[in-house]
Amino acid sequence: MDSLIHAFGLLALDMEVSMQEEKERVLTTQNEFSQDLFQKQVKSVQENLIVRPSLSYWQDALRRFAANKQSLFAFYLTNILILFSFLGPFIWTRNPSHQDLNSPSMSPNMGKPAVVVDELAPVIPLFAEIPVISTTDETSDLVTEEKAIGSVQNFKVIGFPTTQNVVLGWDYVPGASGYVIYRNEVKPEDGALGIPLGDVMEGNQISFEDAQSLEARDYFYAIVPKDADGMETTHNTVLKVQVMTAISVDSAKSLGVSSEIGTHVRLSSSPLGTDSLGRDILARLMSGGKVSLFIGIFAAVLSIIFGIILGGIAGFFGGLVDDMVMRFTDLISGLPFLLCMILLKVILNVGPGESGITALLISLVILSWTGTARLVRGQILQLRNSEFIQAARMMGAKPGYLIVRHMLPNLIGVILVTLTFQIPSAIFTEAFLSFIGLGVASPATSWGSMCNEAIQSLLTRPYEFFAPAVVISLTVLSFNLLGDGLRDALDPKLRSNE
Amino acid sequence: MLSYILKRIFVGLITVFTIATLTFFGMHAVPGDPLLKGKVVNEVVRKNLEEKYGLDKPLFVQYGTFLTNMIKGDFGLSFTQQNRSVNDIIREHFPISAILGALAIIAAAIGGIIGGAIAAVKRNTMADRSIMLLVILFVSVPSFVFAALGQVLIAEIKTRVGVELLPVAGWGTFKHMILPSLILGLGTMAFLARLMRSSMLEVVHQDYIRTAKAKGVSSLQIFFRHQLRNAVLPVITFLGPAVAAITTGGFVAEIVFAIPGLGRYFVQAVQQLDYTVIMGLTVFYGAYLVFVVILVDVIYGFIDPRIRIAGA
Amino acid sequence: MSSLLSIRGLKVEFSTYGGTVQAVRGVDLEVHKGKTLAIVGESGCGKSVTVQSILGLIPSPPGRIVSGSALFNGTEMIGKPVNELNKIRGKHIGMIFQDPMTSLNPTMKVGDQIMETLLIHGRYSKSEARARAIKLLEDVHISEAKNRVDHYPFQFSGGMRQRVMIAMAIACEPELLIADEPTTALDVTIQSQILHLLRELQIKNKMGLVIITHDLGVVARMADNVAVMYAGQVVEHGTAEEVFYKSLHPYTLGLKQALPSPAMERSQLIPIEGAPPDLFSPPRGCGFYARCKQAMTICSDNNPREFYEGSHMGRCWLHHPQAKGVEV
Hints:
The structure holds 3 protein chains of 3 kinds. By secondary structure, chain A is of the alpha+beta class. Helix content of chain A is about 50%, strand content about 10%. In chain A, strand 2 (about 155-160) and strand 3 form a beta hairpin. Chain A is elongated. Chain C has helices spanning about 45-55, 80-90, 110-120, 125-140, 145-150, 160-170, 190-205, 215-220, 240-245, 250-255; strands at about 5-15, 20-30, 35-40, 65-70, 75, 95, 175-180, 210-215, 225-230, 235-240, 305-310, 310-315. Chain C starts with a strand and ends in a 14-residue tail after the last strand. The interface of A and B includes residues 340 and 343 of A.
């Protein structure tokens, strides 16, 4: 143990000695460096330069924006939505206000087969020739006859099964006193045959017309013969029938397809289904989008221009003008927004049959410029007192030149960000008002009013509601994300924080 | 402080007066005969009705009567539901809207503040990202979409599982209130969460947090004693506008969930152009919203010592 | 003289949006018991970062202590877990910051803020802590301390707030007080009062004091020892007299020439031309090379060693034996 400590002590001593030597070596070795290095240096100015690459404001903003996946995604999504609404109708040419009462409330489909039918054609029941039963037959034979009532044979469809009617036919079952027809939407199991459609009272009737609220889908018909006492037997025969949409001759003519009765045609597809008036939802989404986006973008742009002008005047002239403009701004922004939107909308919406788009636009502009005005005023006040503006002023720059050359470029970033946030909020407001029935009115449509129309049938046909609902949400979402991205990219204050 | 409150109330009164004036002249500028609306009314009845509603007098006399009645708190009679006064409608239906709104704002404030605080503390983690994703979703998706989604979901669960979690529509028990108030509060909740998060992050970078650290205060104590309190303060000021948003948002909730609140009546009145009801309810709502904002600001003033002691 | 705080080879980096900043590049410092060390240098030279990293106050991320050690009373401070640090922060080492306007919690009474330190570290009841807080306010010469203890920071002026900060920092009678530019944000008459107060308290409590400043006037008044920092390094280190009268580094000389002083009998101030180097990519050679009037060829590519004259250190090639013949 002692020796170990001793060893350590020696080692420490050793190190001390070597450090001492090192120091002495430095001090004594005269030629550690080449003597040339100890010459006074004459330097060029360039050595003072900072080496980091410098980016201009916009280059840097663009770089930041492009690096942000979320904002890029939002940028593409907004473009897609705008293209969808404005260029979409050139590709998907269905008339959004064409009411096709033959195909209301259809679920999303890719073009259903249909058959042209004559609406007025009456269906005459068919009767079978009953073989004459000899009265001389033995009673035992009769009993066996009664017991022998079998199931219905050759259960079939006569003509085309359409949503107008389905005509069923079958072979006469000897001994049957009548038949009961059932319909079910799923394959009958365990004797669950579905809704009893009708009772055929006569044994020799061998056809039946079903015209009860048929839809273009598969049905399972079942037929049960009745015995002499009118009781249903246990035999049933099931038939699967694929019912096709029926269109009238007139509709066929208007659709431009063959109007001959019995022709199979393919109805134009509705990828998103149709609404309760048979209007194609996809086409309506496009035309509604045009209105929603138009209101959103136009109202935002107008209100921002208005805000820039008023805020600019207040900030640039200051003093009494500033005071008056700002008191006015305070008053307007103190008003409850949606309440006054509704009120203004009522006042401006002259007469029924008006689409309400203009009224909405004007109301939106009147009530939503205040934020921009405050922002622009604040920025201009700040800029006005900044050194570079003072310097420009000293050098005799005129107000117009100052505004255009110095102030606007510094304001554009802020304005752009405000604009991107104003658009979704305008779209949101429009959707809100249209949804409660106080916005865009028929025949014009917007996403909000489509939701309004579809809310009644929400639980039975949710897609009618959710198609426009999803697009509104996507639009507002993508504009909001875009605004976030732009703000992050353009606001240098944020840059230092993150 | 007192002068601040008085000043705020004065400005509030001017705002309400502006709303009342705007409403009155606006509604009178709407073309069409408020009494007719398609019905054929004979001269005598018409005369009586005009007298009853004071429509035979000159516009400015009507305006004067309107204002004095408003000050007295008398909002007049409904055009469409005759012999029912606007005051009755408010008395009957406003409490329902108020309960709905109060529940929504409570849910929004609690959810928003907690959510925002968690997001800020767990900055740049999965928790933060998921909360911020929900925030942007709740801010972007209109409340009627969530309302519909909620209804469809509950109906689906009912058909699939056979359990009705909550009533899909209607009003009465507390169970009826849960879904509408939650959905009504979502947007505001998201807004407050975003605000809370950025406020928290701002506070984290403040010098006084560094001071507290240098004093040896533990992280937990710093969070509760220094950070949370200072971060919540600016969020409180936004509760006023939040009440306004939730009140008007209530129109939608009341329609979708078939709640007999005042908002539904207001929308109905606007659709039916029931002039007195529109005017009365607009002024009522206007006054209510303006003064709620003032009330919240005054309460804030009492909480924040900088305003309480130093004045605005 | 026994060492209170001893920093060796401290390196701190900040990773930022633009790259990694090497804010502190190997700093050695020594604070003795009851003595004052002044750290001098211009903004961004790493003074504050150095002292804040001792208490683990560097925001991390982006900050990161790369290497080095800081022994306080013989215990290692670098890498100490936060709950351990909290037992030292405020109790054994007090700290005052530059801006008294923002360094106090605006929504908390000053008394409560002082009491917070006491209640964490000492065995005080609430009322005892309150009495002690009032006493501390009196010690930092705040009149009517009994009333003021219930006031909020915004009811105090800048100088008064700095006094409150000092009261908070010395509440537990720490062995070391770090004052990070304590007078920069104050006006001149108040500056003098605050310095006087610090001096008074230092003597009374026998504290070690680290005072960070870019004001040589403060240094002359307060310091026993001086460390001059430039571009993340200590370029000169010695007693105040040595550094002032026998400066070993051209940067120190430059600072002195830029100081208005009747004693120096100069009619004109001589500024140091240029700006400090970019610490995103610090120069290989001497950090001061680009601005140095006495620069030699060796300076551009070789970082100078520490050269000693007794305990007086200068980090400059001019003191290399081979540079003896070079005209200055």
